[in-house]
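Obj.: predict assembly geometry.
Materials: sequence records (below).
Method: joint structure prediction, all chains together.
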Amino acid sequence: MNDDAFDPWARRALAEVESALERWVPADAPAGLGEAMRYGVLDGGKRVRPLLVLAACEAVDGDAAAALRAAVAVELIHAYSLVHDDMPCMDDDVLRRGKPTVHVRYGQAQAMLAGDAMQALAFEILTPDGDAVAPALQARLCGLLARAAGHAGMAGGQAIDLASTGKRLDEATLSDMHQRKTGALLQASVLMGAACGAVSAHDWRALAGYGAAIGLAFQVVDDILDSTQASETLGKTAGKDADAGKPTYVTVLGVDAARRRAHALRAQAHAALARSTLAQPARLALLADRIVDRES
Amino acid sequence: MNDDAFDPWARRALAEVESALERWVPADAPAGLGEAMRYGVLDGGKRVRPLLVLAACEAVDGDAAAALRAAVAVELIHAYSLVHDDMPCMDDDVLRRGKPTVHVRYGQAQAMLAGDAMQALAFEILTPDGDAVAPALQARLCGLLARAAGHAGMAGGQAIDLASTGKRLDEATLSDMHQRKTGALLQASVLMGAACGAVSAHDWRALAGYGAAIGLAFQVVDDILDSTQASETLGKTAGKDADAGKPTYVTVLGVDAARRRAHALRAQAHAALARSTLAQPARLALLADRIVDRES
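Observations (raw structure tokens):
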């Protein structure tokens, strides 16, 4: 598959995800809560995680309806973490995806509740009534997502991040932080997609390796872009982590070594796919390229 | 069953729940996150929701190991909501269960993360690896809990609560708010316990009716205690809602009518159990009495 085949696929996949978010994130939740939730997740973001879910599901020829639910659930967890992360007691950011952040628009209390309700909604979407998704798969997806979002994953990484402000970290500690904070959910996206099909233990390990590599690569590239691009390009305040005394791959390694690290991780991701017996790993391979080559 | 038989059961059940919380809420989550999570949920609270889960499971002769997980998960959702609710952008409370609140002790950022991680942990605990809990039951419990915690349940009720400050509400609107804010999770506790066994549609409806009645009764009694008891007895700041211009059952109905309402709801709960064909509804009946007769 070449890029020409990838882009129509990605466009179609993104349209499906947007339409599902539009349908499943409730406009009518009481007292403005639904509006704040929708503001926090609709019409924005690169949707990298949903694309990973759907590409992994296709790679294992899995259940597309279940994967769409997984894609939306993962994006809701990601979006809620941004809503909370932007609040004054955390990063105190006013701009996200080129728009005022949720707490700037709706107030801090509503932003906190919207984030909380978005996390719950992720698990609601994974557990539809009836037999739209096999119950054992519902349980598996809930388990993968909860572990990636929780203390051992994203929330744990954020706690390390909080504690690291103003400290010098070596690369190993920085990687540990980001493997949890960003990597866990990106890796879970791949594995949730894979769980929607039948996959051997060998391929599961290969996909876990792929997910770990692109998970870290994503953050390395984020740090590079944050130090080299303008806020307008990124749609969020650039250079904020470094300015706040937070260690980044660029402050720890320098920008050239950080670029080399990103390319090495891309190679690791490709090698993991090459080890697998997956029939259709091409979209996952292209997604690794997109993650490393992106410019915003 | 009389009170003498109930108390040893409740003591044993509570000890089991405390020990499970102690085991499952991780002390070693990174950068102090585990400590903040444990502070937010261990050694405190009346554990009404876990008792409801376990009593409902016994009433249907259900899977006790699954019910223990459900009991802990429900309590984690309740505890996380208190951690977030106490924060300065919400109720700004400094005292909870007789101790400084989590944000006072660990800072606002850590309190927000701890609450977020506690919500995720609830779903981790419901989805153990292996076959400790049947996968279909895992999915059912996740679905019930997510819906009770989310926009249509607890988080939605909190949004109505936020919007209601300084407003006059009629009893119907006040009931709607509390059915979501407090009632949904109390009712879900009963239904999650019942889901751990085989239960007919008739008995499910009876248990849902029981859960709705005690869910609302709990809040009516909370409002009465808040207006009549001292902070020391309650372990939290008394009279705060009324002082903040938030409508309560006491400000809307007056204390005598609120008491009559609580007793009517207890009678509804008992009637729902009497309609059921449950073999052992006695502990649920006694829990309804305890909820209405409690003094803190």
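Conclusions so far: The two ends of chain B are 24 Å apart (CA to CA).
To do: check interface contacts against the pulldown list.
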